[in-house]
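Priority: medium. Attachment 1 of 2:
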């Protein structure tokens, strides 16, 4: 449950679906996430028992002859993929203009079975004072890796380019093991990082931002760690150490975000200017003033 909506798993014949609806009942305004119950494919309000379908129609008023067809609860578009629920948000309520890539689209040969279940290797940072664009800007901010994430040196950006709603950047961290990361950002809320060394894929990470109002967002950090054959059910000690190191990194960013001011006209150094400007230019498409309404 989040402030503006609730996630409800409903049962369709043979399959569970996740639905996300606005939180407050159109009748007298009760919050469906506090005592609402799923009945069949509907959710029943805890206040007077009105029922709402997964697509937001009123299906039953228990003490009245017929439902109120004129009333609707907003139903949000969701996608379920890679054990993650993704919600489409558009300020004008339009249908999705693009689909989020799956991990198999982004990582050659990716198969979920080879990784520990991601709900056990994820962390939520609730109610952080940050806007999603600030999180996205991290991926092209090479210098911050050195100072915020303690990389031995500033990484080199090998490539950055845009593909419509996607922004892709590849960094090399140098060093003997040839560490590199490719980050694929879709919209302002979904960033998939694929971490490699010379010996192959180390892990995959999804950093996602859910704006919850004003300058605040919920941040989720999900890390797919390859199962060790010696410890197939639970992360091994080695993988747990990798996870803890990686999850701690976002905490370092959070400390900066919580306390910074955002500079629209930042005095960028020549060495960092091109990728940061490119990302800011790309990001304009996601704001109402410049959206193709
Ligand atoms: S407020 Fe939901 S049924 Fe009355
Ligand atoms: Fe960062």
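Attachment 2 of 2:
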């Amino acid at each position: 449950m989040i402030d503006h909506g609730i996630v409800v798993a409903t049962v369709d014949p043979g399959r569970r679906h996740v639905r996300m609806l606005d939180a407050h009942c159109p009748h007298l305004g009760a919050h469906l996430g506090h005592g609402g119950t799923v009945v069949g494919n509907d959710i029943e309000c805890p206040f007077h028992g009105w029922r709402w379908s997964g697509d937001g129609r009123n299906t039953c008023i228990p003490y009245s002859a017929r439902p109120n067809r004129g009333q609707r609860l907003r139903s949000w578009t969701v996608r379920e993929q890679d054990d993650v629920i993704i919600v489409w948000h558009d300020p004008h309520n339009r249908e999705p203009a693009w689909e989020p890539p799956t991990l198999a689209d982004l990582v050659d040969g990716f198969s979920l079975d080879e990784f520990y279940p991601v709900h056990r290797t994820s962390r939520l940072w609730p109610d952080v004072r940050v806007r999603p664009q600030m999180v996205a800007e991290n991926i092209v901010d090479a210098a911050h890796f050195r100072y915020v994430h303690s990389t031995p040196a500033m990484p080199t950006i090998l490539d950055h380019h845009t593909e419509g709603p996607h922004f892709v950047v590849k960094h090399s961290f140098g060093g003997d093991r040839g560490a590199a990361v490719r980050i694929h950002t879709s919209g302002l809320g979904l960033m998939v990082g694929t971490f490699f060394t010379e010996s192959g894929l180390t892990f995959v990470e999804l950093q996602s931002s859910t704006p919850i109002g004003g300058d605040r967002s919920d941040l989720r950090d999900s890390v797919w760690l390859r199962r060790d054959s010696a410890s197939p059910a639970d992360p091994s000690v080695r993988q747990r150490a990798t996870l803890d190191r990686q999850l701690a990194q976002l905490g370092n960013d959070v400390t900066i975000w919580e306390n910074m001011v955002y500079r629209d006209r930042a005095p960028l150094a020549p060495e960092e200017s091109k990728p940061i400007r490119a990302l800011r230019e790309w990001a304009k498409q996601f704001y109402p003033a410049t959206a193709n309404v």
